Amino acid sequence: MLRLIWSVFVVAALACGQGVTRPPIVGVAHIALRCKDLKASLEFYAKYLGFEAPFESESGDWLKVNDHQYIGLWPGLSSDAEDRLMHVAFETTDARKLRDYLASRGVAVRQKLSPDAEGNLTLQTRDPEGHEVWFVQYMPGSSHRSTFGKAVPATRISERIIHVGFMVKDQAVEDKFWHDILGFQEFWHGGRTDDRTDWVDMRVPDGKDWLEYMLNVNNPSARTRGVMNHMALGVPSVDAGYRTLQGRGMPIADPPKIGRDGKWQLNLYDPDLTRAELMEPKPVQKPCCSEMRD
Predict the structure, then answer these.
(1) Given 146, 174, 204, which residue is the final one in a domain?
(2) What is the DSSP secondary structure assignment for residue 178, as one 8-state letter?
């Protein structure tokens, strides 16, 4: 029913959406996660991964990766059956213009945007499968803008979230939103074997970060949900990051490996089993399954 309603919105708006242009979408802004034990989650992201919370917030705790990217932690996870992932967010240069553009394309959005609790303009919507998606414009005087250049210690295991990912049931349905409307572009797809597609990497239209569709997931366990609904932290050397985390006493189940995309990666799991993988941005061997576009 959600897909049908969303499709009707799109079809009804196509005729009147001509001439409204999409403003830039430049990268991942944040990923927001529910936690059972906020203290334990803060210890994982602060003690081991080295991130700091630069300001207090009514909505949750924000761990700063860089001036434009955060990991948001919310208390309230009540059961293993509940999604840890609350939403993903991308940065735009003009939230109001993006609101008008999405409305013209039949996407359900607010009539008017006002500054949020942190002082930014934040546009909230849902994609065809119901994933909550935010688009953030950092505004002068906001909590985030006021801490530019602050709370970026050398202890950070990574200086950038290079992608976020979540479970997708139907790629064609999701592409209507992410590709056709928002302009995200596929630059690689692959699978556990060469003859299947389990992951599709969709790059933001005006930057280098990407969204990863996680396909072919049925009846996921809590562990599987955490693996699929995830973030990737870019590092110049996974091996160096691995040795740093070992030196901090972090328990790590498996050593680094080269993934099917040809990139070194190290899978880490927070106390609620959400995967925060370390990943080198460039392949060191030929990726499987499809050409990886620049």
Answers:
(1) 146
(2) I
Cα separation, 166 vs 185, in Å, equals 16
Judge if 141 and 165 occupy the same domain.
Answer: no
Is residue 185 pLDDT above 60, yes or no?
A: yes
Question: Which uninterrupted H or E stretch holds 146?
Answer: helix 143-146
Q: Is 2 exposed, middle or buried (0-12, 13-18, 19+ CB in 10 A)?
A: exposed
Which pTM does this prediction carry?
Answer: 0.93
Same domain? For 86 and 221 the reply is no
Mapping DSSP to helix (H, G, I), strand (E, B) and coil, where does residue 94 land?
Answer: coil
- Both 113 and 212 in a single domain? no
The rounded radius of gyration (Å) of the Cα atoms in the chain is 19
**Residues 246, 162: Cα–Cα separation, whole Å:** 23
Asked if 156 contacts 254 with a C-beta cutoff of 8 angstroms, the reply is no
19, pLDDT greater than 80: no
How does pLDDT run across 99-137, given as a tens digit for each residue?
Answer: 999 999 999 999 999 999 999 999 999 999 999 999 999
Question: Sign of torsion, CA 263 269 274 276?
Answer: negative
Count Cβ atoms within 10 A of the Cβ of residue 188 and give its class: 0-12 exposed, 13-18 middle, 19 or more buried: buried
Q: Are 61 and 72 in contact (CB under 8 A)?
A: yes
Q: Reading across the β-sheet that carries 160-167, which strands appear in turn?
A: 185-190, 199-203, 210-214, 160-167, 230-234, 276-279, 264-266, 257-258
Do residues 99 and 107 touch, judged by C-beta distance below 8 A? Answer: no
Q: In this structure, what are the phi and psi dihedrals at residue 151, rounded to the nearest 5 degrees?
A: 55, 40
- Residue 9 tokens, joined: 């919105």
Question: Minimal CA–CA distance to 254: which of 262, 264, 133?
Answer: 264
